[in-house]
Amino acid sequence: MKIIMLCCLGLSFTLPAEASSCLKGQPCGNIQKSANHQLQSSAASQKANRKKLYRGAGNYLVTAKRLNVRGDNLLDGRPVGQLEYGENIYVYRFSHGWAMITFKNEVAWVSGRYLRYQQSEL
Q1: Which residues form the SH3b domain (predicted)?
Q2: Quick one: 58-117 is in which CATH superfamily?
């Protein structure tokens, strides 16, 4: 019984708030469509920004203060060292957000989130 009353009270608070957001002379559905359009355009711009990021082999700059280097491309992989902010590294490939590099002549992995591509100057 108490649950039903709380649901009813919750709905009674929600409905007037929605009604007060409608502009005079416009149905409330237009506002919802406008909000959906804004969400869709925001998602499309984020997708376009992701496409601009180059995620292939090449030279990259470390953007984290300290970046853990791991033996495996998992968070549980044991850290084998660290890279400092501003260091240049060569990435051989990316896999599920992890960048494969060599560290102390061994294959190692770092999070690709903290790398910025550096175009090579020919």
Answers
A1: 57-118
A2: SH3 Domains (2.30.30.40)
